[in-house]
Amino acid sequence: MEAPSHNHANYQARLDYIQRLLGDNYRLSDKVSTPLHRTIPKLSGTKITPVQYEAHFPFEYNNFVYRLSIPVDIPTTPRNADVKLQQPGCVPQETHVQNEVAILTLASAALQHIEPSIVPRVFGLGPASPGRLGWILQELMPGVPLDDVFSPAGSLKQKKEILGQMARILKGLQDYQLPPSIQGWGGLTFDDGGAIISASMPTVGAGPWSSLQESYRGRIKVALGKAEENPYLQGWLPNAVRERVEDFIERGLPKQFADLSSSQDRAIIHADFTEFPLHHHKEEIQSSDNLLYEPETGRLTALLDYDFSGILRPAYEFFRSFAPDGGRFTGWISDRDPEGNELIALRMAKLSGEFPSPLPTSVVTPNGPGKHNVKRPSTIQGIDKLANVDALLGTLTPWRLINKDFLRMNPDEGHRMELRRMGEEQLIAVLERIGF
Q: pTM value?
């Protein structure tokens, strides 16, 4: 029998922690002693059920989600809700909760025109601190994942209807006027008065940044730091690759942003519309699991999981989301084989909005973006240069050499060195593509 993964090691401890939170923060019942002489709340009738959890899942979860079925009404504000929130500049673990709740607050306002609401309400939170897990108590949203819609069996009509609703969501996030208290690029938190302000980006562990250019400079520096710590990448020092990257940072990076007429554009970026794998064109890709819908009506009912969200340029959504419909900007990796050429052709079509026959060509409208007037790749000025920088950023830390779980499951040194060779080839291909 397959042994449970390291995610499962603290399974019972997490359940006990949730019980203590409910008892301490919401006064659900008196505490009682357990056979192990521990004191935890006795929550009669309360069910705590893991959501999308696999005991044998080999990769580390970035968070754990539980469905709570509570037989009594609880206050919408926890008893300990006056816990002082962390200030900007804290380590990622201490800003993770605040960033997600702040984004949920903004997204709720940005998408208030969509009824019923598709953004979960937040009933309570607890910022992380040393020795203490962070937590968010939020609304359970109705609906099921979009797997059936984006499967090969899904109809073209269904796909168009869902994509139209996705465009409406994206439009709302793009157009929302950010509060003046948010000054930078990156993550968010709250100040002592409850205002939402810029903070470090939890997924990066750095920021906030004062400009779009500085956000990419900072993230590239963080990526190089991770590469330096990796015994296989060695900071990309071998074969003088690091010199070329440093040269790009100093000379090339400013050029990528010099001609942007709207470099100050910022928007709420979800960055993870898609999540779990499904089969498409005989390969596994990402499925729209963070979007739920009602099969009977075809209506989207929820946009979930704001774990990777932040305040960035609108183009960034297209660098991180929309995998099922080919939205991500893969490519620029290699043009030495038919698959590489196909990826590059797809990338160019998305950037230009001009797709080859027999696919339908781009429809030009007075507003440019089409029916929903959404900013899309072909209408975002300078996205080609931003895509180049983002491609470089992505190739600096090859996931299969950085992720400790993947390395643990693939101990063969020969295979690891082959991945190292492929990673360097991809990084050089990107550098050559942008003239370095």
A: 0.82
